Amino acid sequence: MTKSLQFNQSVRAWMDVFMQRSMSGWKLFAKSCGLSMPQFSILMQLHHKGAFSMSEVRERFEITAAAASQLVDKLVQNGFVLREEDPNDRRAKLLNLTDKGRDLVQRGAQERYHWIDGISARLSEADKAKVSVALGILTEAVQALEQERDVQKA
Amino acid sequence: MTKSLQFNQSVRAWMDVFMQRSMSGWKLFAKSCGLSMPQFSILMQLHHKGAFSMSEVRERFEITAAAASQLVDKLVQNGFVLREEDPNDRRAKLLNLTDKGRDLVQRGAQERYHWIDGISARLSEADKAKVSVALGILTEAVQALEQERDVQKA
DNA sequence: CTGTAAAGTTAAGCATGCTTAACTAAAAGG
DNA sequence: CCTTTTAGTTAAGCATGCTTAACTTTACAG
Question: What's the rounded Cα separation, in Å, for the pair A54 and B139?
Answer without folding.
Answer: 38
